[in-house]
Design brief:
There is one protein chain. The protein is built from 9 helices and 10 strands. By secondary structure, it is α/β, with parallel strands linked by helices. The chain folds into 2 domains: 134 residues, 2-Layer Sandwich (Nucleotidyltransferase, domain 5), CATH 3.30.420; 171 residues, Nucleotidyltransferase, domain 5 (2-Layer Sandwich), CATH 3.30.420. The strands form 2 sheets. The chain has a 5-stranded mixed beta sheet, with helices on both faces. Strands 8-7-6-9-10 form a 5-stranded mixed beta sheet, sandwiched between helices. α4 packs across α5. The chain starts with 6 loop residues before the first strand and ends in a 19-residue tail after the last helix. The mean pLDDT is 93.
Length: 343
């Protein structure tokens, strides 16, 4: 490890949260996020509104991150930013700001893959966060991604299985919308599920040709038809059974994820298991994973809550590892909305 302190300013703008963080080596000094409340009224993220809000937020967010870290701009050694995947308009705001600042300060620029950052958030140096040993399996679950990955080292990622249609976060949010819950509905399903009976209603689990791939669009359709059918019999069905419906939906989704993860562990023989991404904040997933430590002999790695959703600290830790390898980018590096984890 480097003896001297390396300060990385990192910027995250892939969707609707504007984030900036300062890392001193692998330790987070500040991690600032400006959320965009405007999208709740539309029941989902509106790309044009997101990029406009990023433009308003980025300067104050970066300023605040630097001030909270107790350093000045001249202490920063490099700027890391999210290159993709994400919403193009949002990515462009972060990318162009990072490029401009790196030119102004005459310091290196580091492009970061957002999905790699979710995984490597496990390596942020925090007292109560264990770092997984290589190789390990990582279930990456968010609003835009669902993947089982084999992590070989800091920059080698192998996709074992991924969703062929919707991501798991989308399945949660769209199910919540069908129930009339406000956006984002995933956390509300988690909350209400604790009060319901998870075996009250049964939903079929979609099949995929590759047994480690996921599919959630069929499940979403099954939930829609189920609710329509029950509503015809009783127009108060959702209201009277909300907790049980939420518990049953969550149980089905978690079951799909865990079956595939168990299969991946059996096939690879790897028992070090991590989760990453926004949906890894789900309490049922965390609880089930912990239970598998005893029943399957797994060692599980769950990042702190603040590093599960989109944030700049996770971009910064990738930036730090890349800095150590002198892995810098040119000013003509382009943002890209589609980017595989191993790109």
């Amino acid at each position: 490890m480097h003896k001297k302190s390396i300060y990385i300013l990192s910027i995250e703008s892939s969707c609707d949260d504007t984030g900036a963080a300062i890392l001193q080596n692998d330790t987070v000094l500040s991690n600032v996020i400006a959320n965009q409340k405007i999208h709740a009224a539309y029941g989902g993220v509106v790309p044009e509104l997101a990029s406009r809000a990023h433009q308003q937020n980025i300067v104050p967010v970066v300023q605040q991150a630097i001030e909270l870290a107790g350093i000045s701009k001249k202490d920063i050694n490099a700027i890391a930013f999210t290159r993709g995947p994400g919403l193009m308009g949002s990515l462009l705001v972060g990318t162009s700001f990072a490029k401009s600042l790196s030119i102004a300060l005459n310091i290196p620029l580091i492009a970061v893959n957002h999905m790699q950052a979710h995984v490597l958030a496990h390596f942020i140096n925090e007292k109560n966060q264990k770092k997984p040993p290589f190789p390990f399996l990582c279930l990456t679950i968010s609003g835009g991604h669902t993947q089982i990955l084999k992590i070989i080292n800091y920059n080698e990622f192998e996709i074992l299985g991924e969703t062929i249609d919707d991501a798991v976060g989308e399945a949660f949010d769209k199910s919540a919308k069908l129930l009339g819950l406000p956006y984002p509905g995933g956390p509300l399903i988690d909350k209400y599920a604790k009060l319901g009976n998870k075996t009250a209603f049964k939903f079929t689990e979609p099949k995929t040709s590759n047994e480690l791939d996921f599919s959630f669009s069929g499940l979403k359709t099954a939930i829609l038809y189920f609710l329509q059918r029950e509503h015809r019999k009783d127009e108060n069905f959702i209201k009277n059974n909300l907790y049980d419906i939420c518990a049953s939906i969550q149980y089905t989704i978690v079951n799909i994820l865990m079956k595939k993860l168990k299969l991946a562990s059996t096939k690879t023989g790897i028992k070090n298991i991590a989760i990453a991404g926004g949906v890894s904040a789900n309490s049922e997933i965390r609880k089930t994973l912990k239970a598998f430590e005893n029943s399957l002999g797994w060692t599980t790695y769950i990042p702190n809550f603040e590093y599960t959703t989109d944030n700049a600290a996770m971009i910064g830790i990738v930036g730090y590892f890349k800095y150590l390898n002198n892995d810098f980018d040119e000013e003509n590096t382009m943002a890209t909305s589609r980017l595989k984890i191993n790109e």
